[in-house]
């Protein structure tokens, strides 16, 4: 739309349950989202995609996010780009640019259909295939199924609904500059490349960059279809749909705006019961956005137009798309708004439908307003509570219990059933109980012999788990530092995880000492185990008080008895011998815990040693003359004289020594007289003298 304005993949293996939850997580607009697993739905701020218009998202049968897309990129449930999930051929400014359709009969394959946008290079209909078994259960786009071409020159909109057998799915697009609608059927064998073509008599052509705009939408039951044509056409087509053959028929054209307006109609949605139609329209020049309601039960254009109700008008925001939620309410997006509006009772005619403006505040995405024109596109059958696909679950209980009772999600339309329990056991009861002899995993198969338009049988296979123990976390454990301790289990086939911390991973890093429980949930059964993380005593290492050292009397530093040692000298023994002053440290480990200590070695009460000769030749060996030992003195004075009694060197600093020069000139070889006065650390005074030979 162009305007001047064992892997964790087994999460998807959970049973369908008694309500379809694939549409329970929405992402749309500027990183906006809604979580319908909560009542009322709660805003989500963790999305990582932006789109001016269309998006799509899909959850597993328990309502947990699998992935979402803006038609250009696919994000996995970690909100990171799915492997191979970039460069899709859709467009973020396309009315209904994408829809996600599960492959019938598969627990892991999803088709992501996309269309281009008006006035763009790519204006084609294509698909990508997502395999949720890939990338360790976070899903990947199959390299061989990227942007697979279906057909060219279609409108920037598509819609999807279930076949009457509740297994296969129809995906419908509109051919450009034509009155043709093309319905493609996705079955367990893949996409049928030959569409069912319907002619309605209303050709939409003209300005390609303008007249593609507007939504396509099925009613939840799949019996009605609406196409909204914006701008130059400014009209709405309402048709009947045969979800057995894929044919559209009995087209009716209505015009919500009796006189042409700028932009015109855009979004549409049927009431859950299919009797009412809601349409959004925008008069850009008149700065008025309108939400209309029509009673479409008469199937007569004039009668439908006469039933028109103005549900809401807005002079601040343009209106975008409408979408039914899992709660059977209809949600409305307004461009650049911060809150989503809701039709609370959409099956009620006129103002009794209870429209609530700005019902749910979505927050801000940085400096961006969350709402744009679009809301997610879904397989519309997800919102028909009476047409859930046949499925079954085990009744809630403990995963250790070998006696399992199975229940079918709905009994309407069933002639008979046959169960195969995966261990040679069988039953024809509607709600059988079967006892397994040994723990393990079993593929349970249900065949439903049904009475419906297809005359086919449904086969459903679900894997169940009979656990062999509820002590899967092992024994209590301990840690020196709880923040570094990982606890958990190996990936268990088909299991969802829930920790008392709220984490849903199979392992966690503890945040402190205490008790941690993990609950395993597999297709309706649950078991829980608790492990205690206790503090482990750290080792205590002590090198003793600071000490002193003499050159000819080394000091032994002893760390004690531990598993490992690492000294600052690089040694790895329990003790080291040092004869130099400095700071020494050791790090020890005991049972995986670390401890360290440091000691300072200073000059000690060492004997004063004066050498008899020195060689100041700059070879770094005996280059100067003075007290050799590292010693601590209370008082110190050294004087050096020539043979004629000339004072050529003097110092009161024991660390300063004579380098064999006088007033910058080298003194000749020979004997020189020295006189030393000092007081040791105990206060005893000494006087010594002697000679030293200077040798170059």
In short:
This protein is mainly beta and 696 residues long. It contains three helices and 55 strands.
Question: Tags for this entry?
Answer:
Methylamine Dehydrogenase, Chain H, Immunoglobulin-like, 5 domains, five-stranded antiparallel β-sheet, 3 helices, 55 strands, 2% helix, disordered N terminus
Summarize the helices and strands and which ones pair or pack:
Blueprint: E1 25-28, E2 32-35, E3 42-44, E4 56-59, E5 65-69, E6 74-76, E7 98-102, E8 109-115, E9 125-131, H1 134-137, E10 140-141, E11 148-151, E12 154-162, E13 169-175, E14 178-187, E15 190-191, E16 196-204, H2 208-211, E17 216-218, E18 224-229, E19 235-241, E20 248-254, E21 263-270, E22 276-283, E23 288-295, H3 301-306, E24 309-314, E25 319-324, E26 330-334, E27 339-343, E28 355-361, E29 392-394, E30 397-398, E31 403-408, E32 414-420, E33 426-427, E34 433-435, E35 440-450, E36 457-466, E37 477-479, E38 486-488, E39 496-499, E40 507-509, E41 514-522, E42 525-535, E43 547-549, E44 555-558, E45 564-567, E46 575-578, E47 582-590, E48 593-603, E49 613-614, E50 633-641, E51 647-651, E52 661-662, E53 665-666, E54 670-680, E55 685-694
Parallel strand pairs: 30-42, 37-42, 43-48, 49-55
Antiparallel strand pairs: 1-2, 2-3, 4-5, 5-6, 7-8, 8-9, 9-10, 9-11, 12-13, 13-14, 14-15, 14-16, 17-18, 18-19, 19-20, 21-22, 22-23, 23-24, 25-26, 26-27, 27-28, 29-31, 31-34, 32-33, 32-35, 35-36, 38-40, 39-41, 41-42, 44-46, 45-47, 47-48, 50-51, 50-54, 52-53, 54-55
């Amino acid at each position: 739309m162009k305007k001047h304005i064992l892997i964790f993949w087994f999460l998807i293996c959970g049973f369908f349950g008694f309500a379809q939850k694939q549409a329970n997580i929405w992402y749309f607009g500027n990183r906006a989202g809604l979580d319908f697993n909560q009542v009322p739905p709660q805003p989500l701020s963790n999305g990582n995609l932006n789109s001016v218009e269309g998006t799509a998202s899909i959850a597993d049968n328990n309502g947990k996010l699998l992935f979402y897309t803006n038609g250009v990129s696919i994000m996995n449930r970690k909100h990171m780009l799915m492997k191979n999930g970039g460069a899709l051929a859709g467009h973020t400014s396309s009315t209904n640019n994408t829809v996600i359709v599960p492959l019938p009969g598969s627990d892991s394959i999803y088709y992501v259909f996309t269309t281009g946008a008006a006035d763009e290079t790519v204006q084609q209909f294509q698909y990508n295939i997502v395999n949720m078994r890939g990338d360790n259960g976070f899903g990947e786009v199959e390299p061989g199924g990227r942007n697979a071409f279906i057909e060219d020159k279609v409108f920037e909109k598509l819609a999807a609904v279930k076949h009457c057998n509740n297994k296969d799915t129809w995906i419908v697009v509109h051919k450009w500059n034509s009155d043709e609608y093309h319905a493609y059927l996705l079955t367990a064998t893949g996409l049928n490349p030959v569409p069912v073509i319907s002619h309605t008599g209303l050709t939409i052509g003209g300005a390609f960059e303008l007249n593609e705009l507007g939504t396509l939408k099925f009613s939840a039951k799949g019996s009605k279809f609406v196409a909204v044509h914006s701008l130059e056409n400014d009209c709405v087509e309402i048709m009947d749909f045969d979800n057995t053959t894929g044919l559209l028929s009995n087209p009716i054209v209505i015009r919500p705006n009796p006189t042409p307006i700028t932009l015109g109609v855009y979004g549409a949605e049927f009431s859950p019961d299919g009797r009412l139609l809601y349409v959004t329209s925008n008069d850009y020049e008149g700065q008025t956005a309108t939400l209309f309601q029509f009673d479409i039960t008469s199937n007569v254009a004039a009668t439908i137009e006469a039933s028109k109700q103005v549900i809401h008008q807005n002079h601040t925001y343009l209106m975008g798309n409408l979408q039914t939620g899992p709660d059977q309410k209809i949600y409305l997006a307004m461009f650049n708004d911060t809150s989503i509006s809701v039709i609370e009772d959409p099956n009620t005619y006129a103002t009794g439908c209870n429209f609530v403006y700005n019902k749910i505040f979505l927050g801000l995405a940085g400096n961006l307003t969350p709402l744009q024109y679009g809301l997610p596109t879904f397989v519309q059958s997800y919102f028909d509570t009476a047409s859930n696909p046949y499925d079954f679950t085990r009744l809630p209980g403990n995963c250790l219990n070998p006696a399992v009772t199975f229940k079918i999600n709905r009994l309407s339309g069933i002639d008979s059933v046959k169960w195969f329990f995966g261990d040679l056991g069988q039953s024809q009861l509607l709600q059988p109980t079967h006892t397994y002899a040994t723990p393990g995993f079993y593929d349970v198969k249900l065949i439903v012999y049904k009475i419906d338009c297809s005359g086919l049988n449904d086969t459903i296979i679900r894997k169940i788990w009979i656990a062999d123990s509820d002590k899967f976390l092992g024994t209590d454990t301990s840690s020196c530092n709880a923040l570094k301790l990982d606890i958990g289990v190996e990936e268990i086939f088909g299991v969802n995880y829930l920790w008392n911390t709220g984490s849903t991973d199979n392992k966690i890093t503890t945040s402190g000492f205490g008790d941690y429980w993990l609950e395993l949930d597999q297709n309706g059964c649950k078991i829980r185990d608790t492990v205690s993380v206790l503090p482990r005593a750290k080792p205590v290492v002590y090198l003793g008080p600071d000490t002193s050292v003499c050159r000819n009397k080394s000091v032994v530093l002893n760390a004690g008895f531990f598993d490992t040692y690492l000294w600052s000298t690089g040694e790895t023994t329990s003790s080291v011998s040092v004869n130099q002053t400095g700071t020494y440290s050791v790090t020890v480990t005991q049972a995986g815990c670390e401890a360290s200590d440091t000691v300072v070695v200073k000059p000690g009460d060492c004997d004063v040693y004066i050498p008899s000769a020195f060689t100041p030749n700059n070879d770094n060996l005996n280059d100067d003359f003075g007290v050799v030992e590292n010693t601590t003195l209370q008082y110190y004075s050294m004087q050096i004289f020539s043979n004629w009694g000339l004072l050529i060197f003097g110092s009161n600093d024991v660390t300063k020594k004579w380098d064999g020069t006088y007033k910058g000139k080298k003194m000749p070889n020979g004997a020189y007289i020295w006189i030393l006065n000092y007081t040791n650390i105990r206060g005893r005074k000494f006087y010594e003298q002697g000679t030293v030979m200077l040798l170059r």
